[in-house]
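This part of the workshop introduces the protein records we will be handling. A record pairs a protein's sequence with a compact description of its fold. Comparing a sequence with its C-alpha cells is the quickest way to learn the format. The record below serves as our worked example for the rest of this section:
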Amino acid sequence: MRAFTSLRQRNFRLYWSGQVISVMGTWMQTIGQAWLVLELTHSAWQLGLVGALQALPVLLFSLFGGVFADRWPRRRVLLATQTASMLQAFVIWVLLIAGLLQLWHLYILALLLGITNSLGRPTSRAFLIEMVGRDDLPNAVALNSSLSTLASIVGPGLAGIIIAASGVTVLFLLNALSFLPVIVSLALIRSHELHAQVLRPAGEGEQPNIRQSLREGLSYVWHTRAVLLVMLVVGLVLLFGSNFNVILPLFATEVLHVGATGFGFLSAATDVGALLAGLWLAWSNRQSTLPHVLIGILVYGVLEAAFALSHLYFLSIVLIAGVGFMETTFATQALTMLQSDVPDHLRGRVMSVQVLFFDGSLPLGYVLMGWLSSLYGPSPALLTGALLCLAVTGFGWLWRKPAEKRAA
C-alpha cells in the first residue's frame, strides 16, 4: 500500500477516484471523435485538422490559463472547466441523435475543448499540491501518471468494443456522463482541509493586471535557472525523442517484419513500461532533483538508440518497454521537481509554461519524426532523435552546476 500513500488524504482520494472514470471517458471520446471524422470525410487531412484545432489553443492560451489559475480559487476553476468539457461532449451527442452534426460543428467544438484544456491543464497541475502537500506530492504526481497510462490502455479498447456493438454516438454520451464523478468529487472537497496556498505574498498591495501577471511568471522562469534548465531540457527531449509512436507501425512492418500483431505488442509494451514506472515512482515517493531527471533522460536516450538499431523482435519489445518506463520516469520527476520548488503564488503560471514546453513539443515532434522517416527511413530517423536527446542531456549536465548554485 506504500504506492498509494497520498490517497489517505480525503480530498485527493475523492479527486483521484473521480478522475479514474473521467480520464477513461476522455480517451473513449478521442477514439470516437477520430472515427466520426473518418465516417464523415474519409480524409486523413481532416482528421489531422480537427486534432490540430483541439491542440492549438493549448499552445496559444495556456500561459494565460496559468495567470487565471493563480488569480482564482483553483477548485472553482476546475469545476468550471470540467463542466464545460462535459457540455462539449453532450452537445456532440445531441447533434448526433438529432441527425444534425456537420463537420464544422466538430471544428468549433474541438476548438472550444482546446480552449478549456488551456485553462484546465495548468490549473489541475497547480491544484495537486493543495490537496496533498509537499510530502506526498511525488506519490500523487506518480499516481496521476499511472492513471493516465492505464486510461490510455483501457479507454481505446473499450471505445472499439462500444463502436462495434452500438455505434459511435453512445461514446459521447458516456464521456459526458463520465465527468459527473469528478465534478461531484470537486464539489465535495473540503476547502478548509486544503494545504494553505497564498495567491500573492503578503504586503504586495493590489493584484497586477493580466499582462503584469504573465510577465511576472515568465520572469521567474527565466531568472530561476534550475527551473529554466528543466523546462528546456525536458521540452527538447520530448521534441526529439518522444515521438516514436508515430513510426512504430513502420518498425513493425519494415524493420522487424512482424505485421499488425507485432505492432500491437510493441505498443502494449510501451504502455506497460509507462504504467510500471508510474507505480514504481508512487511506491518510492521520493523528492526529485535535477540529477535524477538528467540521469533518467540519459538512460532513456540510450534505450531509444538501442531500439532504433535492433532487428530482433523480442529484444525490441524489451527495449521499447524500457523506453516507455524511462520516459514516464524523467517526465514525472521533472513535473514533481517543478511543483515542489515553485512559490505558491506563481505555481499556476509556472505550470502553464510547463504545459507549453512539455505538451506543446509533442505535436511538433510528430511532424519532425514523420519528415525524417520519409527521407531516411524509420531506424535512422529514430536514431537521430535519440542522439539529439543524448546531446541535450550533455548540455544539461554542463549547465547543471551553475543552475544548482544559483538556486541555492
